[in-house]
């Protein structure tokens, strides 16, 4: 199913998500096409909803090069791992963990082959979805130092928040439509 049909088919209680999606994605003027569609892909993957991810990948393939599409998926994969690890370091009171090496492979952070700023923006979007303050701080600082404005950063985070909420609604609707389990 196309992402537009998926969004248009959201239930009435998610009307604000439809409107926000339209404003942020269909009428975007704050981000480049690569920044926007890479964020859609990375955010859909981070939202963990198969239907949304499939639709996002299908639509993004029309707007991204194969290399950029792969890089957005790489950002989601690496940050899915890093966000858990670094969120743990942030949450634990045992400071020794922060002195030990992570020993997690992150080669994709260097070998993605797209604009470094775009990759960092996608990592920031996924980190916001996954609630990792340490990673949000790190990626936000990098993109600001590279000249990205706070307005563009918030545009990325708005896209991530709407995609995440759409994934949650789709999950809820799947549960509502499911047959009751016999006990």
Brief summary of the model shown:
It catalyses: N(6)-[(R)-dihydrolipoyl]-L-lysyl-[lipoyl-carrier protein] + a hydroperoxide = N(6)-[(R)-lipoyl]-L-lysyl-[lipoyl-carrier protein] + an alcohol + H2O. The protein has 183 residues and is mostly helical.
Describe the model:
- This protein has a single domain, classed as Up-down Bundle (AhpD-like).
- It is built from nine helices and no strands.
- The protein has helices at 3-8, 15-26, 33-47, 50-60, 66-91, 108-111, 116-130, 133-145, 150-177.
- The radius of gyration is 17 Å and the shape is globular.
- It is mainly alpha-helical and 183 residues long.
- Helix 7 runs antiparallel to helix 8 (133-145).
- The mean pLDDT is 93.
Helices, strands, pairings?
Layout (H helix, E strand, L loop, with lengths): L2 H6 L6 H12 L6 H15 L2 H11 L5 H26 L16 H4 L4 H15 L2 H13 L4 H28 L6
GO molecular function: disulfide oxidoreductase activity; hydroperoxide reductase activity; peroxiredoxin activity
EC number: 1.11.1.28
Function: Antioxidant protein with alkyl hydroperoxidase activity. Required for the reduction of the AhpC active site cysteine residues and for the regeneration of the AhpC enzyme activity.
Q: What is the H/E order?
A: HHHHHHHHH
**Count of DSSP helices?**
9
Average pLDDT confidence is 93
What's the CATH topology label? AhpD-like
What is the number of beta strands? Answer: 0
Low-confidence parts, pLDDT < 50 over ≥5 residues? none
Main sheet characteristics? none
Give the overall shape, derived from the CA principal axes.
globular
CATH superfamily: AhpD-like
Radius of gyration: 17 Å
Q: Structural class, please?
A: mainly alpha
Strand content: under 5%
CATH architecture descriptor text: Up-down Bundle
Helix content: over 70%
How far is the first residue's CA from the last residue's CA?
Answer: 34 Å
Count of folded domains: 1
């Amino acid at each position: 199913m196309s992402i537009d049909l998926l969004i248009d088919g959201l239930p009435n209680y998610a009307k604000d998500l439809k409107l926000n999606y339209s404003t942020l994605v269909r009428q975007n003027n704050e981000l480049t096409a690569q920044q926007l569609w890479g964020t859609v892909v990375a955010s859909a993957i981070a939202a963990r909803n198969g239907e949304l991810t499939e639709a996002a990948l299908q639509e993004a393939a029309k707007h991204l090069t194969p290399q950029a599409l792969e890089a957005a998926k790489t950002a989601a994969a690496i940050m899915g791992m890093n966000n858990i690890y670094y969120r743990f370091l942030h949450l634990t009171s045992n400071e020794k963990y922060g002195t030990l090496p992570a020993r997690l492979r992150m080669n994709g952070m260097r070998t993605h082959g797209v604009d470094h700023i775009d990759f960092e923006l996608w990592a920031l979007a996924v980190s916001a979805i996954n609630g990792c303050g340490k990673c949000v701080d790190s990626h936000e600082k990098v993109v600001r130092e590279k000249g990205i404005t706070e307005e563009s950063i918030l545009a990325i985070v708005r896209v991530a928040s709407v995609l995440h909420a759409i994934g949650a609604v789709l999950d809820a609707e799947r549960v509502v439509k499911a047959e009751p389990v016999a006990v």
